[in-house]
Specification:
The N terminus is likely disordered. The protein contains 18 helices and 26 strands. Helix content is about 25%, strand content about 20%. With about 625 residues, it is of the alpha/beta class. A six-stranded mixed beta sheet has the order 4-3-2-1-14-15. A six-stranded mixed beta sheet has the order 7-8-10-11-13-12, covered by helices on one side. Strands 24-17-25-19-26 form a five-stranded mixed beta sheet. It has two domains: about 350 residues, Metallo-dependent phosphatases (Purple Acid Phosphatase, chain A, domain 2), CATH 3.60.21; about 180 residues, 5'-nucleotidase,  domain 2 (Alpha-Beta Complex). Strand 21 and strand 22 form a beta hairpin.
Length: about 625
């Protein structure tokens, strides 16, 4: 399940979000209004329906915005202002807007990660925005104290609107209860649409001991769920949560269960986890939206044709029309879609939004997140740069940073060693500009410990890397010019696959707006989904996309004359089961339990990176 899940995630990223990122401008310490405007083509306006949704997912603590990336430089206060304006406009139109968040608010930014408990500050800020419904993500379950925080803080705040249909927590008395509610039924404010909502997490297995996740396929057969989908008077089902909406089976299990009872009732899905923008058509009355990652994007979906009805036949006679947008998360895009101004007559920032922005700024200072270590001279990138290469973040670590790891035991310091890291231990690119405490959390937020095999035969150790990089979730090493490739997308249940050559389509789209494609300077997401190429509110020039190896390894303190007979093998603890699997193939005569594994000690990855920046580039801008 782990390998197939990773395989789907990689393929989804290839097909649907061909590129990531954009050119950086100057460093900005705070926003909203000080963030420089991104250079873009004219924005594509959102379209309204009688039922509309705003969606976020996988925010991972990025509530302060992307301070080195103008295209994503809004903050959570801007988002709160945007929601308030959109809801006010919905009232004027007599339609409804529902705001949902699909989980994973921890691990990825200093605002969430620089405290104990992780999220102690960021979760307080998160609930200041007027979100209607929220679900849990897997990053709320890795650490027991974070799971407890979610139960104690988020679930009570939402008063029944925090949904965990398949996730429970164990209380101190030993009993198991759902962290949030299993379902929530409500009627919309203006259209009076009766909605039954569920919030699901994918079949996650790496949760802490105080939580448990029931498999979606089992839950949809349970009596409570079967009873809920049979309640009379429901006009629509809303199923949101933390699961990829393409390729993975969880959403389809839910869909099959509901469709077994209701053949044509509208169902709207929202998902997350795989960090992409996507829109999937399941059938003529059901679609799914996924809104990206890290507050680079918010999702907009409008539906026309959903009305209160008393019979299934009446519902099925009404065709539904859908429109979606993936909105770049910067103040200028948000103000544009809210029909407000940033200046000189400022009408965008609301009192609530401005207060949230001020609180974020104050906490960033209080947590010392703005402390600068130095200036990174250029961008060091993950999938946007070829590995190995001068702009590859993995290459930088492999050739210059990992050698700085110092073991707790000084007697190991002179030993030859192979140091392994998995590319997944890095979360984000390292952009040129001021490198702060916050940037350390952004590039590598995880607290993985270093472990090692003492004195492994080098003849075995040197073959581990190729085993790790040959696992079946690797498709190809690189795709040098993905935008020029012909891609095939299948519309679910709507007929045959279709093909499109993306570059001519993009050039044509730019020409239709009287803009020379070569003048498009801001690079970013180019999204293909089941409705085509016009979902991004901002047309972008794409980066090339490269595939990363699963792992890289650094040889350190090797003798100059010949390879060592024996070497220490050092690795992040997350990699332990994968390395043991590799060793089982390389040395089948040694039992798994006979490989001696010890704690190596040393600084976390983010600390090693900070130390390197300070030593090599610390005088460049301080």
């Amino acid at each position: 399940m782990v390998f197939s899940a990773l395989k789907c995630l990689v393929l989804a990223g290839l097909l649907l979000n061909l590129v990531r990122g954009e050119q950086q401008d100057s460093f900005v310490f705070q926003q909203p209004d000080s963030a420089p405007p991104p250079r873009t083509l004219p924005l594509r306006k959102i379209e309204w329906g009688n039922l509309n949704f705003i969606s976020t997912t996988d925010t991972h603590g990025w509530l302060a915005g992307h301070l080195l990336q103008p295209s994503y430089a809004a903050d959570w206060g801007d988002y709160a202002s945007f929601i308030e304006h959109i809801k006010a406009e919905a009232d004027e139109r007599g339609v409804d807007v529902i705001v949902v968040d699909d989980g994973d608010q921890h691990d990825g930014n200093g605002l969430s990660d620089a405290t104990f408990v992780n999220g102690d500050v960021s979760q307080q800020i998160l609930i200041m925005a007027p979100i209607d419904l929220m679900s849990i993500g897997n990053h709320e379950l890795y650490k027991c104290e974070v799971t407890q925080q979610t139960y104690d803080r988020l679930a009570p705040h939402f008063d029944g609107r925090y949904l965990t249909s398949n996730v429970e927590i164990q209380l101190d008395n030993g009993t198991w209860v759902h962290i949030g509610k299993r379902s929530y039924r409500f009627t919309t404010k203006n259209q009076k649409i009766n909605i039954m909502a569920f919030g699901f997490l994918f079949d996650f297995k790496l949760n802490c001991d105080n939580s448990r996740v029931s498999e979606v396929e089992d839950v949809v057969q349970q009596a409570w769920f079967q009873s809920a989908i049979r309640e009379p008077g429901i006009d629509m089902f809303l199923v949101f949560g933390h699961y990829p909406i393409r390729f993975w089976p969880e959403m389809w299990a839910i869909h099959s269960a509901i469709r077994a009872v209701h053949k044509n009732i509208p169902i709207q899905y929202f998902g997350g986890h795989s960090h992409i923008r996507d829109f999937v058509v399941l059938d003529s009355h059901a679609t799914a939206l996924q809104a990206g990652r890290f507050l680079e994007t918010i999702g907009w979906l409008s539906i026309n044709g959903i009305e209160p009805a008393t019979t299934e036949s009446v519902k099925s006679s009404k065709p539904l029309q859908y429109s979606r947008r993936y909105i770049d998360f910067n103040p200028h895009s948000l103000a544009f879609h809210a029909n407000k101004s940033l200046g000189p007559v400022k009408t965008f920032g609301t009192p609530r939004g401005n207060e949230i922005s001020s609180i974020i700024h104050d906490y960033r200072i209080k947590l010392n997140l703005t402390y600068p270590f130095g200036c990174v001279p250029r961008d060091y990138l993950l999938e946007k740069a070829k590995y190995p290469g001068p702009n590859s973040l993995l290459t930088l670590l492999e050739e210059h940073v990992l050698q700085d790891l110092v073991p707790d035991d000084n007697s190991l310091s002179d030993n030859s060693r192979l140091i392994f890291i998995n590319s997944g231990s890095l979360r984000y690119d390292m952009y040129g500009g001021v490198f702060t405490v916050d940037q350390g959390y952004i590039v590598s937020p995880f607290d993985n410990e270093w472990k090692y095999f003492p004195k492994m035969p080098y003849a075995i150790a040197k073959r581990i890397l190729s085993k790790l990089n040959a696992l079946d979730y690797i498709f190809m090493k690189e795709l040098t010019t993905p935008i020029s490739r012909t891609m095939t997308i299948r519309r679910q249940n709507l007929g045959d696959a279709f093909e499109m050559d993306l570059m001519p389509t993009l050039i044509s789209a730019a020409a239709s707006q009287d803009v020379d494609y070569e003048d498009l300077k801001t690079t970013g997401y180019v999204t293909i989904d089941d409705y085509g190429l016009d979902g991004d509110d901002t047309p972008h020039k794409p980066y090339p996309l490269y595939y990363l190896p699963n792992a890289v390894a650094t040889e350190d303190k090797f003798p100059a004359s010949a390879d060592p007979e024996m070497t220490d093998v050092v690795f992040l603890d997350f990699m332990q089961p994968f390395i043991l699997d590799a060793l089982a193939d390389l040395d089948p005569n040694t039992k798994r339990e006979d490989w001696l594994i010890k704690s190596y000690g040393g600084k976390a990855m983010k600390e090693l990176i900070k130390d390197y920046v300070l030593r090599e580039w610390g005088t460049d801008c301080l």
